[in-house]
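input
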Amino acid sequence: MLSRMRLSLIVPVLLGLGQVLSAGAAIAAVACPPTSGGHHLRRVGGGSLYLGRPEDNMLQAPASTQGGANGYVNTWRFSNAENLTLVCRYEGTQAAVTLPLSAGSRTCRQEAASSSFVCQ
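output
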């Protein structure tokens, strides 16, 4: 049987461990780099989401598109980003940057006005 003193030392350690475990790991954002090899991310078509490998052409359509004076905003929503790939394309080159999404990602947002594509 544990003594009262030993128990008073163990319980705070276990409680602290529980807080660390329950906090969970933060999902890292995945974003197209604004430039690649001196080329800027395309304002239109700068990023695309694919299920699996991009060469299999399983392009994913956005859940919503909103237009405005400053351009459009595309938003994708999903419950599981496992096996989703973000492909970033740049002005003046055929080269692309391919980034796998974190399995815990839930949304992607593409903004034409700022030439950004971010998933988290």
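quick obs: The two ends are 48 Å apart (CA to CA).
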